[in-house]
Amino acid sequence: MAEFRSFEPGVEVAGEAINDSQPTTLQEDWREAMKKVPLVFFVGGFLGAGKTTAIRSLAEVFADSGQKVAAITNDQAAGLVDTAFLSGSGITAREVAGSCFCCNFNGLSNAILESIESENPDVILAEPVGSCTDIVATVIRPMRALMGEKVSIAAYSVLIEPKRWLELGGRRADGPWSMKFLFDKQLDEADLAVVTKADTLTNEELEDFVEQVSREYPSTAVLAISAKEKVGLQKWVDLVRATHSRDRWLKDIDYDTYALAEAEMGWLNAQVSVKFRDPVDGRFVAGTVLERLVDGFAQRKGRIGHVKIFAAGESGSVKVGVTQIGTGADLDGGFAGPVANLDLTINARATLEPEDLSNIVQDTVQGLLDDGKTQASILYMNSFKPSPPNPTYRFNKHE
Ligand SMILES: Nc1nc2c(ncn2[C@@H]2O[C@H](COP(=O)(O)OP(=O)(O)OP(=O)(O)O)[C@@H](O)[C@H]2O)c(=O)[nH]1
Ligand SMILES: [Mg+2]
Fold this sequence. Notes:
- The protein is an alpha/beta fold.
- About 35% of the residues lie in helices and about 25% in strands.
- Strands 3, 4, 5, 6, 7, 8, 9 and 10 form an eight-stranded parallel sheet that branches. Strands 14-13-12-15-11-16 form a six-stranded antiparallel sheet, with helices on both faces. Strands 1-2 form a two-stranded antiparallel sheet.
- The structure holds guanosine-5'-triphosphate and magnesium ion.
- The site of magnesium ion (MG) has 4 residues, from helix 2.
- The site of magnesium ion has 4 residues, from helix 2.
C-alpha cells in the first residue's frame, strides 16, 4: 500500500467538519435529484492538473455503484486528446469544440441534451478548458437557471496539481507568468479544491500541502486524490454529495486581464498519421515524439501548460504528456505488440507563438522520416492564440 493512503485529509466546509459516513439531508437531496435528472459534475482546474484522468477514474466509481456515466470535453479547437483518451477507455464522450463552455453555452447545453436523449446517463462528467475561469457565473449559474428542470448540478470541483502550485509560487506570490491569474481565479470559485497526483508526494509532503491549501482557502473543502492509483475517489464523490454549492461566482474579475492571461499561451491541435515499414514499439515512438516537441519548446524558452499525445495503433493506444519542462513524461496505456501504423493526436499549450508551435511539430514529423523506413503526414493542424473570452451569459446578480 502506498504511503499516502493512510493520510486522511481534514475536510472542512465553511468551518464545519463533514462526517461523510453519515447520510445527511444534503445527501438525500442529492440522491433524490439523481433519480430524476442527471447530475452534471464539472471537473475544473488548470492545464494538466489531472482532470481527464480523474474523469476516467470517477466514471469507474459511478459505474461500480450502478450509475451510467457520459462525459463532455471542451476545447477552443477540434481534435482533442481528451476525447480520444476517454472514448478509448470505453466512456461515451462528446466534444464541445471551437470555443470554451462559457463562450458556447448553447454548445454545452446541446451536448447535454443529446447525451440525455441518447445515453440517458445518471451522471455527466464535464471538463472545462484548463485555462478557463469564471465558470460559476458563466456556466453553472446560467445552467441552474435555464436547465434546472433537465439537470442537477454538483458542487464545483477545481483540481490542483501540487507541482504547478509550487511552480506558480503558491497562493500569495506573484507567479512567474500571467497564467497565475487564471490559476488563482479558478480556485477562488471552487466549492471543493481537489489536490491531484497524491502518489507523487510522500505522506508528509501531501499532509503539508493539503494543510497549506486549506489555510489559504479556509472556507473551501480540500481533499487529496490519486486518479492513477484510484485513491480518494469515493471520498470525493461522497464529499460532492454532501456539499451544497456555495455559489462563489467571481465578483471582481477583470476580463481584459483574463484575456491577456489566456493569450499568453499558444494553442496547437494536430493529427498525424505515421506508417512504419518494420513494426515498432508504439510507446517508444509516442515518447520520442513528445520528447522532441518538448525539446523544441524548451529551446525557444516556452513554458508548458500541457503537451500531450494520444497514439493509437492496431494493437492498443497510449497517452503521453508533460506538464512542465524538466519533468519526466507521464505514460498511460500501452500496446499488445508492435505496430505498423500510428495515429497521433497532438495537443500543445505553451507560451509560444502559434507559428513556433507549428514549426516545431513540422520539424518533429519531418525528423521521423530520417530512417528512410517511416512515412508520416500531418492530416490536420490548427495553431492559434485563444480569443478574448466573451461569455454567452454572465449571471452576476446577487441572489
Ligand atoms: N502520477 C500521477 N499522474 C497523474 C495522475 N492523474 C493524472 N496524471 C498525469 O498527469 C497528466 C495530465 O493529466 P490529464 O488528466 O490529462 O490532465 P488535464 O487536467 O485533463 O489536462 P488538460 O486537459 O490538458 O488541461 C497526464 O499525463 C496524466 O497521466 C495521478 O493521479 N498521478
Ligand atoms: Mg484534460
